[in-house]
UniProtKB/TrEMBL annotation:
Xref: InterPro entries: Class_I_gatase-like, Peptidase_C26, PuuD-like
Residues forming coiled coils: none
Lineage: Bacteria, Bacillati, Actinomycetota, Actinomycetes, Micrococcales
Protein name, per record: Glutamine amidotransferase
Organism: Kocuria flava
């Protein structure tokens, strides 16, 4: 489905991603673009109208653009600024830190949580969600959760889904094989979040909000076009349905179209 085929009044979602960040190599740039394209198409397939918000732009988009949308999708990228999660000393393998983008994205996340709009946060997005909810990060994980750096490609990893979680209900199973590529991880989970999935070594791989209607953070990448289509359809389909259910009046649409 193309954007032209979306019905009138389709819900809008601000898609926050840094399309350029410090140290970005050509291979990782292509990966970011592929993931972003797949996410945008998955939203359109789910009946939502995406609005791209580049958190690395020289002139950052007005936060009102995201506030006018019916929901928020925050995609992955480089590592989170150590100053935001209390890391002390050098972080081995640190990559792509952009404090300006982190602060901007945290502002959008906090505003989205405050108004209880649907929110899906992936990779770095899930890490920033945890910080916004009062949690901390593991500054550098072992290689088991990282992708293949020589190919700029995610790796497959099995995760265990928490019984009774929204995520387990969406994926219809107790375990799932996912596309994983994260150098940092969630340490102390924010008090307003609950764990929805863990890896075999106990690393937190997904969280859900305890008090908001629909907030999900994933450390893995359902927007990886090389990963399982069924998972992507289930997750983005549920997100799109929630966006439609909470569709607000069209007062902000002129701003979104600007």
């Amino acid at each position: 489905m193309g954007l032209w085929a979306l019905r009138a009044g389709a819900p809008t979602v601000a898609v926050v991603v840094s399309l350029n960040f410090p140290g970005l190599t050509p291979r990782h740039r292509d990966l970011v673009r592929r993931y972003t394209r797949t996410a945008l198409q998955a939203l359109v397939d789910a009946g939502a109208r995406p609005v791209l918000v580049d958190s690395s732009a020289a002139a950052l988009p007005d936060p009102a653009v995201a506030a006018a949308a019916d929901g928020l999708l925050v995609l992955g990228g480089g590592d989170v600024d150590p100053a935001l999660h209390g890391a002390e000393g050098p972080v081995p393998g640190q990559y792509g830190v952009d404090p300006r983008a982190d602060r901007y994205t945290l502002e959008l996340l906090t505003a989205c949580l405050d108004r209880d709009a649907p929110l899906l946060a992936v990779g770095r997005g899930a890490q920033l969600l945890n910080i916004a909810c009062g949690g901390t990060l593991v500054p550098g994980l072992g290689p088991g959760h990282q992708g293949h750096p020589e190919r700029a490609e995610a790796r497959e990893e099995e995760v265990v889904l928490a019984p009774g979680s929204r995520l387990a209900g969406l994926l219809g199973a107790g375990r799932a094989t996912v596309r994983s590529d994260h150098h940092q991880g969630l340490a102390v989970v924010g008090p307003d979040l609950r764990v929805a999935a863990v890896a075999g070594d106990g690393t937190v791989e997904a969280v859900e909000h305890r008090h908001r209607t629909w907030v999900l953070g994933l450390q893995w990448h359902p927007e990886d076009s090389h990963g399982p289509c069924a998972h992507r359809r289930a997750l983005f389909g549920a997100f799109g349905a929630q966006l439609a259910a909470g569709r607000r009046p069209a007062a902000g649409e002129d701003l979104l179209a600007a």
